[in-house]
Amino acid sequence: MKPENIKNRILSEIKYEMDQLLVRVIFSIEKLTEEEYTNLTEYVTRIKAAEILDISLPTLTKLTKEKKLKAYFISNKCYYLRQQLLELITNNFKSK
Question: Whose CA is closest to 49, among 59, 41, 60, 34?
């Protein structure tokens, strides 16, 4: 194979991989509502959410299953809105 052909083949493969990555990103973004997208920086991971609420990860999972917290799955990872966590803390203190 000529060097030019090798170069073109490599560039073609890189372009294909970049296109695939862009498609994955677009699909991830489309799963979010417009409001959720604007609050994207306000998302925290499960571990950080458990730290904020001062609870264990199994308890966090239980709260999610009981629909007391909404989990957002972005690129196969679970996130929570920081604002929801703070509201849950506030509501628990008000009810005591």
Answer: 60
Residue with the bigger pLDDT between 64 and 20: it is 64
Query: Which residue type sits at 25?
Result: V
Contacts of 11 (CB under 8 A, 6+ apart): none
pLDDT category, 34, cuts 50, 70, 90? low
95-to-11, 76, 87, 89, 90 alpha-carbon distances in Å: 61, 34, 12, 10, 9
If asked whether residues 47 and 26 sit together in one domain, one would say no
Domain shared by 89 and 50, yes or no: yes
